[in-house]
């Protein structure tokens, strides 16, 4: 066991040699613009804030930045991990963050799932790992950068599940808020043409904090993606963000095109802020529990009045936990694993569970930690006749040369590449003539599965009732253009020239659970995603494997793929066994603090307030009640943006001005842009813009409200003054606030001034685009983290020593590492191993299994 630990450490060290090639110190300026961020506990301990946000990830940083736009509200964020300064290359360099990323590092919680019923191989190496970002930016700092939305039906389902809500969470609303969080940067015409990039600006934001676009460099095989689907007769959406994502897209990534760096929650929502004394961010401290007042409110609800926290390294004695007071609210943004854990530790959760760990039951809520859903994934790998794939960056020399380019030439490097070719085939595409039978089998099987979930997880009837409604919706998706699988082309396989098609089930019927297994907040909860425990999920995965193989032969894709590396035995049994040996997370867990009615097992209401409390909110991916066909980041930002408006509107009631502005709004917590949001136009805006530019901006904004960016480009060129203004203050942020005021503020005098300021700021920020685009060969895109991660991770983990992963925490339900190792050896002989892992394992017995499937399926 010790030996294995040290091989893991050595592997990590080896993989960081590239980072050492160019000293981090030259990038220290990345950090200087940060808001008040430190691990100095005295800034938060024994202090009060209006809001305390638990967790500085995607939901947490976005909601904290938005609330603190109101100068009357103070916000503290407490983040368990570090501030990222130790890991800048691994966070900010897009491709580098895949091949040398932060999964299995101190920026990862390093969770593992318990032994799965259906997945044999689950506990070997990569398969059992459940990465979650631990540090500022959360999973948004370590993820695959995919920026994509689900279809309108899938957001509308949130309304269907909450029929009595006066707050709308349907597509139009979510689209509005996802747009609010993003700024789209168009790809170059050359990239559009070469890679068939399908997008339409109409569906994207123009002034949000998160910069999205396509990489500078895109590997050549991506050009076959869209045509291959076309040749199969599958729908090609006009833009995956349009509300119909059925079919293939070369999707956007969270990449800032000015320098091809990751636009993570910190870079987007925090770094551009001018000093904002209302926002305090404490790192390296973990919230342990929510502190509730002894008194309940007039409606009998618990009142959260603060949080307890300790140093994340566990060195704070539980008798000496720190405390901070929340005058208004505690907001849980710890994500799908930690939010239910914190609730359970604080006395809100399934009664039996809390009693088992001797935790006082403050509010028995059976849904907390339950209703867990995730996308399970596997990959089919192929050899190709192309010389250049991501694998070339596994070569130290090439990697170093490209790193230099990234650093010195505005990111114009192969390291800008990330996987971007994805597709969402629907049930008809993948099940074809078996669909009717499949569908009626599921319908007949619902009662049986409900019983089995009840037994597996000791499930409460309310939670089962909520699942039944979800299953009904999921079943209904079979007849709709709703993606059942995500197909994802990864440019990284197990060797030179290899690529992979990852496939992941998007609408699982299977349900899992996350429960504490100790009263100690520093002990990981037990995570059981219940992968493929519903047989329909296995069938979809099986058909997905066949679909991937069909795709590999489609159109010109077939001309360059030379060999299929795994899943070569096409019988149901063989494919199922291979899936059992390989399936793992696609990193999209949700549902553990579901926004559902209380009698349907819900944890939060549609204001995101935890039932039975007056002021404890959840703002993260755990509130999503039912899976969506998308990676979750854009949706989670949308949730945070909407939550911030709900919150700001609620608290502006105290202010007579705001009350007047809301006028006839009947809802206590409206869901539009709040008044508070329309001010603060001029934060750091554009000192050097000429008056004429402002006037021009006003005129244009009135005429073409939505096209500010197009205008801004020409304005920057024609005035030439935007150049001088660049670098003064925080143009990006000023621009955003100004233009969002413009968008929502109508034609009042304030609105026009806002438009002017906003547009002026646009001129400043987009000036840099204009400088870049003429000489830029254009942005390119790739796909790839999710498949590629397996490779990177297994590289780290195994390093020639076989399956040497030592769990940091042994779960009561998990098997021992010795058994794991034995299983792994056995599985290595099986036909379907994770191909990518093999290539990195020097162990002869493992690499020899490669020979099991060397028969080329087709020739070039
Ligand atoms: C490896 C990986 C790849 C992914 N790839 C993509 C992708 O390409 N595209 C995409 O859209 N999505 C992707 N996702 C998913 C996406 O990143 C997450 O769904 C999203 O970040 C969820 O946001 P969140 O706010 O719920 O949680 P997170 O972003 O994970 O933030 C939670 C934060 O809370 C902190 N925290 C937790 N508990 C405590 C506590 N008790 N005290 C203090 N702080 C605490 C954590 O350290 C973390 O910083 C990926 C995820 C992973 C892990
Ligand atoms: C919030 O910050 C602003 C400056 O951005 C300052 O004027 C204001 O006083 C602060 N408010 C509080 C409540 O600290
Ligand atoms: C990239 O540019 C943005 C502004 O466009 C800046 O905020 C960020 O710090 C830069 N990132 C790196 C890694 O240089
Ligand atoms: C329908 O599904 C059942 C259960 O999977 C299977 O046994 C049967 O052969 C299928 N029938 C047809 C016509 O495909
Ligand atoms: C199931 O969904 C259908 C629509 O697909 C709806 O008409 C029906 O009422 C739902 N049934 C239940 C029990 O929710
Ligand atoms: C394929 O798998 C089946 C089990 O489903 C097995 O009987 C058969 O021998 C396998 N074929 C090959 C060529 O390995
Ligand atoms: C959610 O619960 C809170 C606290 O009880 C309440 O104030 C709020 O109005 C509720 N929201 C909705 C949409 O019912
Ligand atoms: C902050 O409070 C002041 C004084 O009460 C008020 O004039 C102002 O409108 C408030 N700002 C916001 C954004 O609510």
Word description of this protein:
Helix 8 crosses helix 21, helix 18 crosses helix 20 and helix 24 crosses helix 28. It contains 32 helices and 27 strands. The N terminus and C terminus are likely disordered. The protein has about 850 residues and is an alpha/beta fold. It has a domain of about 450 residues: 2-Layer Sandwich (Glucose Oxidase, domain 3). The structure holds flavin-adenine dinucleotide and 2-acetamido-2-deoxy-beta-D-glucopyranose (7 copies). The site of one 2-acetamido-2-deoxy-beta-D-glucopyranose has 10 residues, from loops. The site of one 2-acetamido-2-deoxy-beta-D-glucopyranose (NAG) has 3 residues, from helix 17. Keywords: FAD, Flavoprotein, Membrane, Oxidoreductase, Signal, Transmembrane, Transmembrane helix. Belongs to the GMC oxidoreductase family. This is Choline dehydrogenase.
CATH level 1 name of the domain at 88-129 and 137-254 and 266-272 and 370-652: Alpha Beta
What fold name stands as the CATH topology of the domain at 88-129 and 137-254 and 266-272 and 370-652? Glucose Oxidase, domain 3
User: What portion of the residues fall into strands of 2 or more residues?
Assistant: 5-15%
* Share of helical residues: 25-40%
Q: What hetero molecules are bound to the protein chains?
A: flavin-adenine dinucleotide, 2-acetamido-2-deoxy-beta-D-glucopyranose
List low-confidence stretches: 1-34, 655-860
Radius of gyration: 26 Å
Q: Which geometry do the CA atoms define?
A: globular
Q: Say how many strands there are.
A: 27
- Please give the count of helices: 32
* Biggest beta-sheet profile: 8 strands, mixed
CATH H-level homologous superfamily name of the domain at 88-129 and 137-254 and 266-272 and 370-652: Glucose Oxidase, domain 3
Mean pLDDT: 77
* Secondary-structure content class: alpha/beta
Under the CATH scheme, which architecture of the domain at 88-129 and 137-254 and 266-272 and 370-652 would be assigned?
2-Layer Sandwich
What separation lies between the terminal Cα atoms?
Answer: 46 Å
């Amino acid at each position: 066991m010790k030996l294995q630990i040290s091989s893991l450490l050595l592997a990590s060290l080896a993989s960081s040699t590239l980072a050492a090639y160019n000293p981090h110190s030259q990038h220290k300026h990345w950090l200087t613009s940060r808001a008040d961020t430190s691990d100095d506990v005295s800034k938060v301990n024994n202090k009060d804030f209006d809001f305390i946000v638990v967790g500085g990830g995607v939901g947490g940083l976005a909601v904290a930045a938005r609330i603190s736009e109101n100068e009357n509200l103070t916000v503290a964020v407490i983040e368990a991990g570090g501030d990222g300064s130790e890991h800048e290359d691994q966070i900010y360099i897009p491709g580098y963050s895949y091949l040398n990323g932060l999964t299995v590092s101190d920026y990862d919680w390093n969770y593992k799932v318990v032994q799965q019923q259906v997945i044999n191989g689950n506990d070997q190496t990569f398969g059992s790992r459940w990465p979650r970002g631990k540090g500022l930016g959360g999973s948004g700092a370590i993820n695959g950068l995919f920026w994509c939305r689900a279809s309108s039906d899938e957001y509308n389902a949130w309304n269907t599940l909450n029929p009595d809500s006066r707050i709308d969470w349907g597509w139009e609303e979510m689209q509005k808020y996802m747009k609010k969080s993003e700024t789209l940067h168009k790809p170059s015409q050359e990239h559009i043409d070469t890679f068939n990039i399908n997008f339409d600006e109409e569906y994207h934001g123009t002034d949000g904090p998160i910069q999205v676009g396509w990489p500078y460099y895109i590997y050549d095989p991506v050009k076959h993606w869209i045509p291959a689907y076309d040749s199969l007769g599958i729908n090609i959406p006009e833009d995956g963000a349009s509300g119909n994502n059925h079919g293939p897209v070369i999707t956007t990534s969270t990449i800032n095109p000015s320098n091809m760096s990751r636009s993570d929650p910190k870079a987007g929502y925090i770094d551009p802020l001018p000093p904002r004394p209302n926002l305090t961010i404490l790192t390296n401290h973990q919230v342990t529990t929510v502190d509730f007042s002894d008194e309940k409110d007039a409606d009998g609800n618990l009142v959260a009045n603060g949080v307890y926290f300790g140093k994340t390294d566990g060195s704070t004695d539980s008798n000496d936990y720190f405390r901070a007071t929340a005058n208004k609210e505690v907001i849980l943004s710890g994500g799908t694993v930690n939010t239910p854990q914190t609730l359970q530790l604080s006395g809100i959760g399934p009664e039996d569970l809390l009693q088992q760990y001797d935790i006082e039951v403050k509010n028995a809520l059976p849904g907390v930690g339950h209703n867990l859903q995730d996308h399970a994934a596997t990959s089919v790998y192929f050899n190709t006749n192309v010389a250049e794939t991501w694998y070339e960056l596994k070569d130290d020399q090439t990697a170093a040369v490209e790193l230099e380019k990234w650093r010195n030439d505005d990111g114009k490097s192969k390291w800008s590449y990330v996987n971007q070719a994805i597709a969402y085939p629907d049930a008809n595409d993948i099940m074809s003539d078996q669909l009717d039978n499949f569908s009626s089998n599921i319908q007949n099987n619902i009662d049986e599965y409900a019983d089995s979930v009840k037994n597996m997880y000791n499930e409460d009837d309310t939670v089962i009732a909520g699942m039944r409604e979800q299953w009904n919706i999921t079943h209904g998706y079979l007849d709709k253009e709703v993606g059942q699988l995500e197909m994802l082309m990864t440019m990284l396989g197990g060797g030179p020239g290899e690529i992979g098609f990852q496939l992941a089930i998007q609408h699982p019927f299977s349900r899992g659970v996350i429960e504490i297994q100790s009263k100690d907040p520093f002990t990981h909860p037990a995570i059981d995603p219940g992968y493929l425990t519903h047989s329909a999920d296995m069938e979809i995965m099986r058909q997905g494997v066949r679909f991937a193989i069909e795709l590999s032969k489609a159109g010109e894709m077939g001309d360059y793929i030379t060999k299929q590396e795994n899943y070569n035995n096409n019988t149901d049994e063989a494919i199922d066994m291979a899936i059992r040996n390989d399936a793992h997370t696609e990193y999209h867990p949700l549902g553990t603090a579901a926004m559902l009615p209380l009698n349907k097992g819900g944890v939060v209401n549609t204001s995101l307030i935890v039932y039975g409390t007056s002021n404890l909110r959840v703002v993260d991916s755990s509130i999503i009640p039912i899976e969506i066909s998308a990676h979750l980041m854009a949706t989670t930002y949308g949730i945070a943006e909407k939550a911030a408006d709900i919150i700001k509107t609620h608290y502006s009631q105290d202010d007579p001005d705001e009350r007047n502005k809301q006028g006839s709004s009947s809802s206590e917590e409206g869901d539009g842009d709040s008044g508070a949001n329309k001010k603060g136009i001029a934060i750091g805006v554009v000192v050097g813009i000429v008056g004429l530019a402002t006037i021009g901006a006003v005129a244009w904004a009135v005429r073409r409200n939505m096209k500010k960016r197009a205008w801004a480009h020409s304005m920057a060129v024609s005035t030439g003054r935007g150049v001088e203004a660049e670098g003064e203050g925080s143009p990006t942020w000023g621009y955003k606030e100004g233009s969002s005021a413009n968008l929502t503020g109508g034609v009042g005098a304030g609105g026009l001034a806002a438009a002017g300021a906003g547009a002026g700021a646009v001129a400043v920020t987009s000036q840099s685009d204009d400088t870049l685009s003429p000489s830029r060969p254009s942005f390119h895109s790739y796909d790839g983290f999710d498949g590629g991660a397996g490779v990177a991770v297994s590289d780290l983990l195994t390093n020639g020593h076989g399956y040497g992963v030592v769990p940091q925490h042994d779960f009561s339900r998990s098997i021992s590492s010795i058994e794991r190792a034995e299983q792994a050896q056995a599985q290595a002989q099986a036909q379907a191993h994770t191909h990518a892992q093999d290539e990195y394992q020097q162990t002869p017995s493992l690499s020899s299994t490669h020979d099991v499937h060397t028969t080329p399926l087709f020739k070039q």
